[in-house]
């Protein structure tokens, strides 16, 4: 039993090491995390219901997972091939395309929730009538930019 728990713990440790590696080295992954934080703040301000918030969380998870898999494939390809290889280039392009497709669908979901459902207008109304509500996103902005462009 103890051995199984240790194996489970080691699996989680490897997964967190992978996330940390991607955080340190992949600007796009940091952009996705920052976007998820801001979208979450606007979802709260826009008073999205629990189901829509859960769907947004699924979008965040799928987006970040696609970016993690893209990064893993790129690193594996770089390790296996020295110089130019047409098939490696195509594999990397296809993996990047998967990220773009995922991002596109996330934008569509966000657009439906924030524009069609009116959450954006609700959030903007909250910000205009309660200026203190904009303090958190405004204060986070410099930190977010540092996180995206200077984090290592």
Write the layout of secondary structure elements.
Blueprint (H helix, E strand, L loop, with lengths): L1 H24 L1 H19 L4 H31 L5 H31 L2 H11 L5 H16 L2
Helix pairs in contact: 2-3, 2-5, 2-6, 3-4
Q: Mind explaining what this structure looks like?
A:
- It contains 6 helices and no strands.
- Helix 2 packs across helix 5 and helix 2 runs antiparallel to helix 6.
- With 152 residues, it is mainly alpha-helical.
- The protein is globular.
- The model has no long low-confidence stretch (mean pLDDT 92).
The whole-angstrom Rg is 19 Å
pLDDT < 50 stretches: none
Number of strands: 0
User: What helical percentage do the residues reach?
Assistant: over 70%
Relative strand content: under 5%
Give the class from helix and strand content and strand pairing: mainly alpha
Number of helical segments? 6
For the biggest sheet, the summary is: none
For the record, give the distance between the C-alpha atoms at the N and C termini, rounded to a whole number.
38 Å
Tertiary shape? globular
On the 0-100 scale, what is the average pLDDT?
92
**SSE series:** HHHHHH
Question: What can be said about this structure in brief?
Answer:
This protein is mainly α. It is 87% helix and 0% strand.
Notable traits:
globular, mainly alpha, 6 helices, 152 residues
């Amino acid at each position: 039993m103890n051995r199984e728990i240790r194996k489970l713990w080691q699996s989680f440790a490897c997964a967190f090491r992978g996330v940390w590696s991607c955080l340190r080295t992949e600007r796009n992954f940091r952009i996705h995390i920052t976007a998820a934080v801001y979208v979450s703040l606007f979802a709260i301000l826009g008073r999205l219901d629990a189901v829509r918030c859960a769907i947004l969380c699924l979008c965040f998870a799928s987006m970040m997972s696609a970016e993690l898999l893209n990064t893993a494939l790129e690193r594996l390809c770089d390790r296996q091939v020295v110089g130019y290889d047409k098939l490696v280039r195509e594999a990397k392009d296809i993996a990047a395309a998967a990220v773009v497709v995922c991002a596109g669908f996330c934008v569509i979901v966000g657009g439906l929730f924030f524009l069609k459902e009116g959450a954006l207008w609700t959030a903007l109304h909250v910000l205009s009538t309660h200026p203190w509500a904009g303090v958190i996103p405004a204060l986070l902005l410099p930190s977010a930019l540092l996180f995206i462009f200077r984090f290592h």
